[in-house]
Amino acid sequence: MKTSVPFDGYRRSGPGGHDELLVRVGPGTPAGEYLRRYWHPVAMAEEVGRMPGRLRILGEDLVLFRDRSGRYGLVHRNCPHRRASLEFGVCEDRGIRCCYHGWLFDVDGTVLEVPGQPEGVEERVRSSTRLGAYPVREYKGLVFAYLGPPEHRPDFPVYDTLEMPGHVMVPYRAPFRCNWLQVLDAILDPLHTAFLHSRMSREQFSRGFGEIGEMKFYERPSGFLGTATRRVDDNVWVRVNEVVLPNFTQAGAAFAADGTRRRYFGRTAFARWVVPVDDHETTCLAWAIFGERGDPESYNVPGGPELIEQGELFDRPYEERQRFPADAEATEGMGAITEHDRENLVPSDRGITLCRRRMRKIIAALQKGDEPDHVTSMWPSMVPTYGGDTVLRLPANGDDQAFLRRVGVAVMELQFAAETLAPDERDAHVIAALKDLEANGLPA
What CATH class is the domain 160-440? Predict the structure, then answer.
């Protein structure tokens, strides 16, 4: 057991250690190989113009482009001829042409043309040489890529919250100057919203977020859920944060729910992927979701997605960041890679410990040759998710903390029981069950 004594800085100075299995994401690293088994967003479609764009993901320097026929390509940065960078290439009808010697490459890396060579050379080069390339697809304004072994490419997953009728989905990018794991951890940390986003500086979302409530964590086949069940006057607010492994996250609304008004199975305000750029930098690529079951349309303005992401704008003066810190300040302040062996984890961190443990287990199995599971094999059509809010009018009843715990469990069990239904049927079933729970109370 660690001991604590006053003024013990001397014995606690010096660098600490990292969870090396999870934080290193480059090619050939354990976590890097794990992450490469999944589709990840790499850009917003609006960022892909007439010129190729250089990007970095999972420690690789790549070039993203769209040829003149409208196809997306994601290729290794350097031409296999003399290693010139294809960020200076030219997009043509059939792919991208290197600026240095005019070699033309298809989006799958095939060499199409080798100008200026004697007869027979082009055919020999085309049969023996290829540019590294990855499969790419665009979906609702985000560009996704699969960077893993071609023989293990999974189907592209479609989540239920991304196909709800009547919602407006606005792509956005959130940069973090730190390792991906400490950004991901925050989604399974319901307690931080009461302090970072409410009690410590100003109410970045609503007064209800400042209520600590009762927390519970659920391990599911596809990932993890963390619930915070709060008392707000005569209402009980059950907020659900979600991680679908390895890095897809959802949460409740930022501004549509504050615990003061009824809400039956409200859905997520953002759907986002925590994408490692490399070991020391992360980009969240996401949609802010507006509509009846998302966040209010009034936040669909410049800066609105940033407020939904973390309660504050990203680009702020340092003094303002000190006065009103948000997620970027909390996670980046841990350092480029936090010192995991100096953490002092407590019961409210159980979601984080469960998630890290599960990922280590999956990575260890992958190192032995066992490929990880995918949600597309668990759910052949649309993937059911849980991130969202439910607010029921349920006045305090005896031991209120015990009552809140029971309500939180009952709300989640209603959702789990309906997860095999089609999306419309599931919504109707859960909403009806929640209204019945509100009207008749908890079962004995």
Answer: alpha beta
On the question of a cis peptide bond just before residue 443, with omega within 30 degrees of 0, the verdict is no
This prediction has a pTM of 0.94
- Decide if 421 contacts 432 (C-beta within 8 A): no
Residues recorded for the chain:
444
DSSP letters for 147-174: -S-GGGPPPPP-BGGGG-TT-EEEEEEE
For 150-181, how does the pLDDT look when each residue is reduced to its tens digit (9 = 90+)? Answer: 999 999 999 999 999 999 999 999 999 999 99
In 3-state terms, the chain is what percent helix, strand and coil (to 5)?
Answer: 30, 25, 40
Q: pLDDT for 266-277, tens place per residue?
A: 999 999 999 999
Q: Domain locations in the chain?
A: 39-152, 160-440
As given in the structure block, the two tokens for residue 344 are 């002092």
DSSP letter string, 286-336: EEEEESTTSB-GGG-STTHHHHHHHSS-SS--HHHHHHS--HHHHHHTT-S
Euclidean distance between CA atoms 89 and 106, whole angstroms: 13
How far apart, in whole angstroms, are the C-alpha atoms of residue 66 and residue 392?
48
Residue 266: CB atoms within 10 A of its CB come to 22
Alpha carbon distance 72, 256 (integer Å): 36
Kindly list the distances between the CA atom of residue 17 and the CA atoms of 236, 278, 332, 339, 357, in Å, as whole numbers in the listed order: 41, 18, 17, 5, 17
- Domain spanning 39-152: which superfamily? Rieske [2Fe-2S] iron-sulphur domain (2.102.10.10)
Alpha-carbon dihedral 374, 378, 382, 388, rounded to 10 degrees: -80
Q: Which residues pair with 264 in a beta bridge?
A: none
